[in-house]
Amino acid sequence: MQIVPLDFRVATVADTELLIGLMQAFYAEDKLDFDPARVRPALAALLEEPRNGEVLLWLAEDGSVIGYAALAMGFSLEQGGHFALLDELYFSHAARGRGRGKQALAILEQRANARGVARMRLEVNHHNELARRMYLATGYVDDTRDLLTLSLAERLKDARA
After folding, report:
1. CA-CA-CA-CA torsion for 13, 14, 18, 23, nearest 10 degrees?
2. Helix (H, G, I), strand (E, B), or coil: what is residue 78?
3. List of residues 6+ apart from 3 with CB closer than 8 A
């Protein structure tokens, strides 16, 4: 495998539609529900407020965008306070298999560390064995827990009915 150096730029509000397209591709591939009413405001909050985190656009040698990553800030007593969450990491199919995933992780880890956090977490779907193997091979630890989610909006809507 030929390793190609990975370049990036920080996304801005002007990149919203580009990111929405990339997110739709990622969500479809990873079997995630893409809800524009939920995703758009969250993306805007991330792009408009640096304390929430940042989105990086991965660039090919010719400068074209080949993927993205969303790094979000969180807080947890167990994690010792603020931590970085690698919320999303996506490369187009044509950009995979050249060592870019590991390079992306290294870049994201450095950027998270520059924000003053000592820990970075991520999610990986059970069906995404390739990504899981890459994360484990680069030092991430499976803490043997499952992530559970509750839609409070749905819960509160049902409670009002």
Report:
1. 0
2. coil
3. 98, 99, 103
The length of the chain in residues reads 161
What is d(CA 64, CA 53) in angstroms, rounded to the nearest whole number? 23
The pLDDT score that the predictor gives to residue 2 is 65
Distance, in Å, from the CA atom of 68 to the CA atom of 88, rounded to the nearest integer, reads: 8
Q: List, for residues 3-39, the tens digit of each pLDDT value.
A: 778 999 999 999 999 999 999 999 999 999 999 999 9
The residue with tokens 């929430």 is: 52
Q: Which residues pair with 54 in a beta bridge?
A: 71
Q: Where are the beta strands (DSSP E) in the chain?
A: 7-10, 53-59, 65-76, 81-91, 120-122
Helix (H, G, I), strand (E, B) or coil at 101: helix
pLDDT above 90: percentage of residues in the chain: 76
User: Rounded to the nearest 10 degrees, how much is the dihedral formed by the CA atoms of 81, 78, 136, 87?
Assistant: -50
pLDDT (0 to 100) of residue 21? 97
